[in-house]
Amino acid sequence: MNTKLFFDTEFTGLHSKTTLVSIGFISEFGKTFYAEFTDYDKSQVDDWIQTNVIRKTWVYIYDPDTNFGIVEKNSWADIHVFGDKDFIAPRLRDWLSQFESIEMWSDCMAYDWVLFNDIFGSAFDIPKNIFYIPFDICTVFKEMAINPDINRESFACDAFSENGEPLFFNEQGERLIAGKHNAMWDAKIIKRCYEKLCVLKVDLKTILLEASNWENQMTSEERSTLAYFDARLKVIDRIHEKYMNQI
Ligand SMILES: [Mg+2]
Known about the structure:
By secondary structure, the protein is an alpha/beta fold. It contains eight helices and ten strands.
């Protein structure tokens, strides 16, 4: 069976010498793995990365002096590993081996994909059950005529607060605290975006299919009447209601 795996990374800068700080994975059925690297290049960390990335890592918050460790089923992930690349790579390989075949999905993934491959050495060394072509939700946004720069949290959230802040809840209805730029949180947002895009696509296809069935039943004379144009406008209204109002 083919499994979609949504992932995100945090790293020390947008350049070719960048190093991994963290990586988070969530499968389409909700299995999670989160790793934090203790061997990232600290000389590359600027104020922005320190504030927005490093301070949102588990190691920074709970145990800054730690070097290696594995935690199972904490509030962040099913498996949470921290250590250097040599420590994390075999544990990640082991976790990935539970899936028969894997399709990788991310967001603006130019750096993420290379850094993921680099955990194992090179693109030729990644686990054999991973399809070598990765996929990106940016392209899906664009193909759905949605601005690919749309705010991911606003697109994927469950509701908005009175002041417009995106809100997220778990299955028990408890509010989740947003953690943008934490790789595990961002991977979950990528999954939510993908799922919402799928729902919108189904809604759109349903409306267009109904419209096409209806058009096919009309005679050419009926198609030249004003009623026909009115009906087509109603189709556009339905698309607007179902689709455009949500983005
Ligand atoms: Mg991120």
